[in-house]
Specification:
The chain has nine helices and 15 strands. It is α/β, with parallel strands linked by helices. It has two domains: 4-115, NAD(P)-binding Rossmann-like Domain (Rossmann fold, 3-Layer(aba) Sandwich), CATH 3.40.50; 122-262 and 293-304, Dihydrodipicolinate Reductase, domain 2 (2-Layer Sandwich), CATH 3.30.360. Helix 3 packs parallel to helix 4 and helix 7 (167-180) crosses helix 9 (287-298).
Length: 309
Amino acid sequence: MAPIRIAIVGVGKIARDQHVPSIRGNRDFELVATASRHGSVDGIPSFPDIESLLGGVKDLDAVALCMPPGPRHAAAVKALAAGKHVLLEKPPGATVSELDDLIASAKAEKVSLFATWHSRHAAGVAKAKAWLASRTVRSLRVDWKEDVRKWHPGQAWIWEPGGFGVFDPGINALSIVTEILPMPIFLTSATLLFPKNRAQPIAADLVFADSAGADRVSATFDWRQTGPQTWDIRVVTDEGELLLQSGGAKLFIRGELVVDEGDVEYADIYRRFAELIAKRESDVDLRPLRHVADAFMVGRHDFTDPFED
């Protein structure tokens, strides 16, 4: 079978670091073009925008949209209307309503729409989900703290409306939590901390309840941590404790190291995308995005010192 001819739209850090090598490492795909205002990939035809890409590349099968979430909906609409399968980097859009529209469009065009949550593809997540499925969760605690200057240097868009601020990494944690928990949760309270000179938060504290009304889940996101970075999810159950570390790459159950693997997330994303395309199915889970929207809607907004990159 011929490989899936795919193009990357938005050639920034995540495209270079993850999407390009993952596509090139998967025999189901062939990277045939890029579209970006500022970036390109050596040896690959480059276009200034998605319109010229769609008009200029024959037999294009799919696009991976890696630009910031703000303009992603408009690009996805054009790609779906052209009959292309669409992969959305996380967060998949600026609003939940945008995704509802894209889901309907993909269904109408009979193509695949894949809203990726890369942290769900970390090595320990599936095993954590399986272990928790038959146990009673008493509490879950997220600590997701990193250095914005390291991971998003000079990316001014991330501080603007629609840029998500600390929820850009925080939504990764929420994508894992919603995947591994055997019960649904909903936000009961939140505090969002905004630098006085920024439109998006630099830190946040969240509390969630389950359907029984108990506040069992809490999360702290912070973009001001220097030195070692913290991406931990700790779950206390009726049969002991589970700990996901390093964003899900490491899994401990009752103190025993069960999984310890490197970065496998994007390789698995493209394995899944090929599977969806073969079946012309979509995979769009909106729960992480809804939780972020809820935090902005009901959370208390506090302010701290101005932040300069």
